[in-house]
Design a protein that fits this description.
Number of helices: 7
Number of strands: 5
Largest sheet: 3 strands, mixed
Organism: Daphnia galeata
Helix content: 40-55%
CATH superfamily: Potassium Channel Kv1.1, Chain A
CATH topology: Potassium Channel Kv1.1, Chain A
Protein name: BTB domain-containing protein
Distance between the termini: 49 Å
Mean pLDDT: 88
Pfam families: BTB (PF00651)
Strand content: 15-25%
Radius of gyration: 19 Å
Strand order of the largest sheet: 4-3-5
Length: 142
Amino acid sequence: MISTIGNYRYEMMDPLWTTQLWNAALERQLTDVDIYVGRKLLMEAHQVILSARSPILADLLSKMKKHNGKATITFEADIDSYTVQHFLYFLYTGSSKVHFSNKQFLTLANMHEVETLSEVCKLAMVSSPDVDEVTNFLLANF
């Protein structure tokens, strides 16, 4: 069953696949990438998933020499490790457990060219106009 409404598409799918992929990373099942924030190991991940979701990570991983069969990706220490983990969660699942208006989330999305996340973050950051500003504008111009 597939349904399309404007810019939204709904398709029935197996709801377990995202959870199973994410749990495979958390449980270090066949992981081949170490993820660091600064000098601290955050978690391990799967190169194929990171590469499929981000052209920047794909390019980086394809050029990287592996140590003991693993690649290493290091995020800057000034980026919150909580945000990096949720960025990775988005890459694995296409969903988020943090609010999309997080500026570091948008920075990571732009930096790694994750277009869907970038667009969703931009939409979440658009604030509603202040009622007084709108009222004053309307009174002044009409």
